[in-house]
Specification:
Elements: H1 7-24, H2 31-44, H3 50-55, H4 57-71
Length: 72
């Protein structure tokens, strides 16, 4: 099944992921950088993956930050 996601939903997802990242960050980061990361995450999300979508945007944000910290 191919899902069509409109711009308003993507904007919502970016805002929600940004807010979640600000909550989960373990080190200080400029808000503009967090916005850039949120846009990057939204572009990578497989919206058709029901298992991933079941986890939710906060889980996605948290896992992305965890992976980022492991790579640095």
């Amino acid at each position: 099944m191919i899902t069509t996601i409109d711009k308003s939903f993507l904007d919502f997802a970016e805002k929600e992921i940004k807010n979640q990242m600000l909550t989960f960050l373990k080190r200080p980061m400029e808000e503009i950088e967090v916005e850039r990361l949120a846009k990057e995450v939204v572009k990578k999300i497989d919206w058709d993956n029901s298992a991933l979508m079941h986890k939710g945007l906060s889980w996605i944000a948290k896992k992305y930050l965890e992976q980022m910290e492991m790579q640095s």
